[in-house]
Amino acid sequence: PVMRHEGLHLAMTLRHPDDLPPRWAVEGFASWFEVIGDPAVLSAQENWYRVLTDPGGLPDALPPSDYHEFFSDLDEDDPDLVELAYLEAANVFLYAEATYGTDVTQDLGDALHTHDVWLEDEEQLDELVHDHLGVDLDDFEDGYVDWVHDTYGE
After folding, report:
1. What is the pTM for the complete model shown?
2. How far apart are CA 108 and CA 133, in angstroms?
3. pLDDT score, position 15
4. Which residues of the chain have pLDDT under 50?
5. How many folded domains does the chain comprise?
């Protein structure tokens, strides 16, 4: 799984070398790529997410777009917090796959790597999501949150 994850990072960096995408898209797409087509790895990831969360601690928004905010828990003594960030980012793409299909999710992941958080604003990200999914970013985020709560809540 790690080689799939890092391999996708390499492929996206070579394909889109000048862009700085939302961090949830970078880590989520790579973490999703680890598990697609591998039920054992997916099951392990889902079980680990259940261990690291409780129903009251499930997300109420997309993971952070900013690099430093995404990795803000690196300074903590608990390495599980960083793993949780990766798992929640992967869940964004697991939600997309469950809702829109694998091909659309792959296209979305690739397209998100063309969005530069330093040069483009959230309105442009909203347009990108709408172009690929037919819903705006807020609706996508709401769907993700509902899916996580339905999948991992009580």
Report:
1. 0.94
2. 8
3. 96
4. none
5. 1
